[in-house]
Amino acid sequence: MVAATPIVLLHDSLGCVDLWRGFPQDLSVITGRRVVAYDRLGFGRSDARIARPSLDFIAEEASKHFPAVREALDIDRFIIIGHSVGGGMACHIAAREPDACEAMVTMSAQAFVE
Questions:
Q1: Exposure winner among 12, 31, 50, 96, fewest CB in 10 A?
Q2: Residue 42 is assigned to a structural domain of this protein
Q3: Quick one: which of 84, 66, 88, 53 has its CA closest to 8?
Q4: What is the Cα–Cα distance from 20 to 62, expressed in whole angstroms?
Q5: What is the pLDDT of residues 5-36, one digit of tens each?
Q6: Measured between alpha carbons, how far apart are the two ends of the chain, in Å?
Q7: DSSP string, 48-107
Q8: Containing domain of residue 47, as a range?
Q9: 112 in a structural domain
Q10: Domains of the chain: total
C-alpha cells in the first residue's frame, strides 16, 4: 500500500509549532496523512540564530532550510500549508519544487515584505 502524501505546515512570522496547538493532530486524523510541523531556525524549540535573518529569508527557507527538512525526514512528495510569512514561504517552495508539491494552501499569507 502506498502511503498518502504528507502535509507540511509552515508557521507564521514570529510563531512556532506550539502555536498550531491541536491542529496538526486533528489534520492528520481527518486526512489520514502524516503531518509535519517544524520550528524554523531561531523560533520555538529550534537552535538559536547566530545572526539576523537575511532580507530574503522567505526565499531562503525554500532554497536552504526546507530541502534539509525534506531530506532529514525522507519526504519525496508533499502538500504544503503556510500561515502568514509561512504562506509566502509555501509559495516559494511550491514554485521551486513543482514536481514534488502536490498542493499548496496559504492562510493570511503576505504578498510582499515591507
A1: 50
A2: yes
A3: 66
A4: 21
A5: 999 999 998 889 999 999 999 999 999 999 99
A6: 47
A7: PPSSPPPTTHHHHIIIIIHHHHHHHTT--SEEEEEETHHHHHHHHHHHH-TTTEEEEEEE
A8: 7-107
A9: no
A10: 1
Specify the length of the chain in residues: 114
Residue 28, beta-bridge partner list: none
Q: Is residue 27 part of a domain?
A: yes
User: Please, are residues 73 and 5 in contact by the beta-carbon 8 Å criterion?
Assistant: no
CA distance 97 to 81: 14
CA distance 86 to 82: 4
The three cell numbers locating residue 108? 493570511
Does residue 20 sit in helix, strand or coil?
Answer: helix
C-alpha to C-alpha distance for 108 and 67, rounded to whole angstroms: 24
Burial of 106 (0-12, 13-18, 19+ CB in 10 A): buried
* Domain CATH code at residue 39: 3.40.50.1820
- Decide if 61 is inside a domain: yes
What is the pTM (predicted TM-score) of this model? 0.90
